[in-house]
Write a structure and sequence with these properties.
Blueprint lengths: L1 E9 L3 H19 L2 E6 L3 H8 L5 H9 L2 E6 L15 H12 L4 E7 L12 H4 L3 E7 L9 E6 L2 E6 L5 H16 L4 E6 L5 H14 L6 E6 H10 L6 E4 L1 H15 L6 E9 L8 E8 L16 H13 L4 H16 L17 H12 L1
Parallel strand pairs: 1-2, 1-3, 3-12, 5-10, 8-9, 8-10
Antiparallel strand pairs: 4-5, 4-11, 6-7, 11-12
The structure holds 3-isopropylmalic acid and magnesium ion (MG).
The site of magnesium ion has 2 residues, from α9.
């Protein structure tokens, strides 16, 4: 297969882990006879230095010509959020791309592979078998509602509004039902319906759409309880669908539960375009690690590239429908771990520690 992938490495550890993913792509091309090519674009701090904006128009144009975006990370150190170079970098780039490309659904798999239970801070018998897919709504809700800061009677006040339409909820919930059909056929809607009106609408929409998917067992759970259950009985979930804000928080929690955000890839997808029956329908998506740019460890060749590599696997699966290739990448990562090859964040006391590059080489070896 041919294809063009826009590569936006970004800031911090972005360029290092992206280099790993591109090496893996080359190995996939060689092994499976594909000719996927990459086109690099600038974003974040590098873009700011060059163009005075975090998301230059030419980067967006380049992405429009590609089949998908493989994204690294953007953003500066926590201690330097107010400098013009970094102020709003994440918002401008990440939220900007999500909105521009209508990336309405975000898929974050939280999986504990057999033999990797020790990565988790939870007890092995509790964590064993955890395999959750969080489907997060990505371009509406409180992130995109009106926000403002103003004064009432001399009191500084800030507010934002969470807003959802029936249609916005329906599109993402449908993705979740379809995903559940290919998995263990269970969907949990996470909300705060004891308080919030948007959550009540999520329930109404989901009950309505459930009629199209009678084979799926669907239940509702309040978000505070869901946070608790993700720690107490993580293996009891299959697919979780939730709004933008809850999904953001729960996916970090889930990352910690599986062992590290450095293990969690993500796919932010839009609707399929083209003819499904003709076999050439393609889904545009942006694929990125769930973690950030980690400036504190940037440039040291110690970051774990797993989330970036697994994001590439998701790209092949969701944009190009190449399940076999995606699985080969996932299995190669797992085999590398099983052979004791680990980056600093995963190596147990006394175990060998591999650099980003060396770990990548081991994954490639397993892939070949
Ligand atoms: C994520 C990130 C982003 C979000 C930030 C960087 C805007 O935390 O992708 O989870 O909140 O969506
Ligand atoms: Mg987040």
């Amino acid at each position: 297969m041919r294809g063009t992938i826009a590569v936006l490495a970004g800031d911090g550890i972005g360029p290092e882990i992206m280099a790993s993913a591109v090496r893996i792509l080359d190995a996939v091309n060689a092994k499976f006879g594909h000719t996927f090519e990459t086109k690099e674009g600038v974003t974040g701090g590098v873009a700011y230095d060059k163009f005075g904006v975090h998301l230059p128009a030419e980067t967006v144009e380049m992405c429009k010509k590609a089949d998908a975006i493989l994204f690294g990370a953007v953003g500066g150190p926590v201690s330097d959020q107010e400098s013009t170079r970094w102020k709003d970098a994440e918002k401008n780039v990440i939220l900007g791309l999500r909105e521009k490309f209508n990336l309405f659904a975000n898929l974050r798999p939280l999986k504990v592979w057999q033999g990797t239970e020790s990565f988790s801070p939870l007890k092995p018998d509790l964590i064993a078998g955890m395999d959750v897919l969080i489907v997060r709504e990505l371009i509406a809700g409180i992130y995109f509602g009106p926000m403002r800061r103003y004064e009432v009677d001399g009191e500084i006040t800030a507010e934002e509004t969470s807003r959802y339409t029936w249609k916005e909820i329906a599109s993402v919930v449908r993705i979740a039902f379809v995903a559940a059909q290919k998995r263990r056929k269970k969907l949990t809607i996470v909300d705060k319906a004891n308080v919030l009106e948007t959550s009540r609408l999520w329930r109404d929409v989901t009950r309505f759409i459930h009629a199209e998917f009678p084979d799926i067992a669907m239940d509702f759970m309040f978000v505070d309880n869901a946070a608790q259950q993700l720690v107490r009985s993580p293996a009891s979930f299959d697919v979780i669908a939730t709004d933008n804000m809850f999904g953001d928080i729960l996916s970090d929690l889930g990352g910690a539960v599986v062992g590290s955000l450095g293990l969690v890839p993500s796919a932010s997808i839009s609707a399929k375009v083209g003819s499904a029956s003709g076999g050439n329908a393609r889904r545009f998506g942006l694929y990125e690690p769930a973690h950030g740019s980690a400036p504190d460890i940037a440039g040291k060749n110690i970051a774990n590239p797993t989330a970036q590599i697994l994001s590439l696997a998701m790209l092949l699966r969701y944009t190009y429908d190449l399940d076999k290739e995606a699985q080969a990448i996932e299995e190669a990562v797992l085999s590398a771990w099983k052979a004791g090859k680990k980056t600093k964040d995963l190596a147990a006391k006394g175990e060998e520690i591999l650099s980003t590059d060396d770990f990548t080489s081991c994954v490639i070896e397993q892939l070949q």
